[in-house]
UniProtKB/TrEMBL annotation:
Species: Wansuia hejianensis
SUPFAM superfamilies with a match to the protein in the record: Citrate synthase
The organism's taxonomic lineage, starting at the top: Bacteria, Bacillati, Bacillota, Clostridia, Lachnospirales
Keywords attached to this entry: Transferase
Protein's recorded name: Citrate synthase
Matches recorded under Pfam families: Citrate_synt
Amino acid sequence: MTVDRDNMEEKLNELVEFSRTSGKIDMKLYTEYDVKRGLRDSAGKGVLTGLTEISDVIGFEVTEQGEKIPANGKLYYQGYDVSELVRGFRNRRFGFEEITYLLLFGELPQKHQLDDFVEILGSFRELPEAFTRDVIMKAPSTNMMNSMQKCVLTLYSYDKNPEDTSIQNILRQSLSMVAKMPLLAVYSYHTYRHCFQGHNLVIRNPKPELSLAENLLQMLHPDGKYTELEAKVLDVALVLHAEHGGGNNSTFTTHVVSSSGTDTYSAVAASLGSLKGPKHGGANLKVQEMFEDIKLHVTDWEDEEKLRNYLNLILDKQAFDHAGLIYGMGHAVYTESDPRAVILKEYAQKLSEEKNLEKEYTLYTTVERIAGECIARKRRLLKPVCANVDFFSGFVYTMLGLPKELYTPLFAIARISGWSAHRIEELVNSSKIIRPAYKYVGHHKKYAELEER
Ligand SMILES: CC(=O)SCCNC(=O)CCNC(=O)[C@H](O)C(C)(C)COP(=O)(O)OP(=O)(O)OC[C@H]1O[C@@H](n2cnc3c(N)ncnc32)[C@H](O)[C@@H]1OP(=O)(O)O
Ligand SMILES: O=C([O-])CC(=O)C(=O)O
C-alpha cells in the first residue's frame, strides 16, 4: 500500500487538534477542588510526601515569631553542610567517592573505609564484554541522556540477578551504576562524534587507580591528558550535583518507580528521563544556549537596559525558545541563594580570569542580577528569585573544555549517588506504593455503536 503523505499529514493534524482540546481542563477547577498543582500548596510549598535523612534543603529562615522569611540557601548531606564538605576535601582527589559513601551509608568514611570503597567502585568500572560495540555503537543517538537510558536498560540483560530487590542486590547494582555512568556518557559522546560528525573514534579504557572525575577526563580526551585543576573542579561539581532531597523531580521519580517494586535498571532509566527535562537537569544546557542567543541579540553586554529588554522578551515568550523561562534562574526551595551556585560562581570567576573571559563572566553576573528582578516582577512573585545550580555550571564546564553534549550527563553521573541512596531509603522504610489522587472532572457518557456516532 502506498501512503499519501499529504493526506496523512492532514489526518494527523486533525488528531493533534483533538488532543489539544479534549484534555483541556478549566483552570478554575484547580482552585475549586484545591488541587495541589505540581504537588505544591497555594504558597508554593511542596506537599509533604516523605521523610528522609539523606539531605536537607533550606531556603527560608523561621523567625522567633514563627514567620518564614527568605534566606541564603543551605544544603546538608547526611547532616553535613555541603559548603564545609567542599572546603574539607580541597586538597584530596576523591571528593565525589567520599560523598557517595556518605550519602549511601550515613557517615563520612574513615581512611581505610574510603580506600576500600574506591577499590570496590574501581572493580565495577568496566562494561560487559563488547558492550560498547554491541549496545553503545548500535543506533547511536544525538542526545547522550537518551543514549545513557538505552545503555542502562540494556545492562539489565547482562545482569545475572536483575530482579532481586534485596538491599544487598540493590546496593551491588547501585555501586555498579555509579561506577559505570561515566563510561556510558563518554563512550556515547565519542560514538555520536564519530557517527554524526565524522571524527575519529578513540575509546580509552578506565584506570582503576584514578578517581571518577580523573577517569572521566582521561577517557574523554583522545590523548588521555588533563590537568590537576580540571580534575579538581570537576570533582567539586560532581559533589555539588550529587543529591538534593527526596522532592526534586528525578529523585521523586526514583521514589515513585521504586515504590512499585520494579528493578534498579528501570528505576534509573526513569530518573534519567526526568533529569533530562529543561526545567530540571537539562537546564544547564539550556542556559548555555540561552547565553549564545543573548549574545547574538544584545551586542553591547554592558548595556543593562538592552539586556533587561531582551530578558523580558524571553519571559514574554517572544524570544529564545519561546518557553517563557530564563533558564538557570529560580528554584522550588531556594530564595536568596542556592549554595551550589555560589560555589560554582567562585570557580567561574577564577577560571574566567585564567582564560581571559572576564567580560563573559560579567555578562553572566549581570544577567543573574537583572533576571531575578525581571522574573519576580513579571510573575508577581513575593519571594526573591536566585540563580540555581545550573546557572554557572555550563560556563564552568566550557572553561574546562567539556562539550555541551555532556553537561546534563555530568549531572546524571553525579545524581545517581543521590538516586541510589533514596531508592534504598524508600525500600528500607516503606512498602507503600506511591499513589496520589486525581479527581475526575469529565462527564460519564452512554456508549454508541460505531455506525451511530
Ligand atoms: C537542578 C534543577 O532542577 S534546578 C532548576 C533548573 N531549571 C531551570 O533553571 C529552569 C528555569 N526555572 C524554572 O522553570 C523554575 O524556577 C523551576 C522549575 C526551577 C521552579 O519552579 P517553581 O517551583 O514553580 O518555582 P516558583 O514556585 O518559585 O515559581 C513561581 C512562578 O514563577 C515562574 N518562574 C520561576 N522561575 C522562572 C524562570 N526562571 N523563568 C520564568 N518563570 C519562572 C514559575 O514558572 C512559576 O509560574 P507558574 O506559577 O505560572 O507556574
Ligand atoms: O530540588 C530541586 O527541585 C531541583 C534539583 O534537583 C536541584 O536543585 O538540584
